[in-house]
């Protein structure tokens, strides 16, 4: 990953961080009405927030478009002006939110000159974002399975983007394939995050940071060197200081 192009972290909130009916985003009628493009963008953002919160609460299968519109304070005709249906809106929310996560991770990674510390910081940025927006974490990690083939494709594309953080891994001895090892590590990280969210402990995700960091580095450096490079022998203090 080219660190020179990863310096600008955005401050965009994840979908679901706000209520769809947030008064600050109300659209007032009248002669001073906002431009059509601004109105559409605001309504779209509200629908994404409404969808994330509704899906997190009711599950993808049981969330209806009427439920989503009600949560967003937006009418059904407007919904269909912006999205083809529930699946289309779900995938839009997933792509937007995971894009925010990846960009925040990339900026944290790029701020470190050392690959090991970059992995630590990137993982910390991801865990912090998900822990701070539990509705999005549930929607994006758990409910994506209910979407079917389109959801599985989105998840596969997301995991491919995660692999880019391992472009600098050392070559493994004995002809062991680094690519296969990276695939296994990325899958393991996703699985650990999934289990924590599925068990209702999303707000405790940051507790996984030392363990996941070691898990990412140990296959390539060995456990002892990975721990030394990360300085994680005082795990509780490290997590508290993050």
Automatic annotation (TrEMBL):
Pfam families: TetR_N (PF00440). Keywords: DNA-binding. One of its GO terms (molecular function) is transcription cis-regulatory region binding. Signal peptide: none annotated. It comes from the Bacteria. InterPro entries: Homeodomain-like_sf (IPR009057), HTH-type_TetR-like_transc_reg (IPR050109), HTH_TetR (IPR001647). Residues 41-101 form the HTH tetR-type domain. Transmembrane segments: none annotated. Residues 64-83 bind DNA. This is TetR/AcrR family transcriptional regulator. It comes from Kitasatospora xanthocidica.
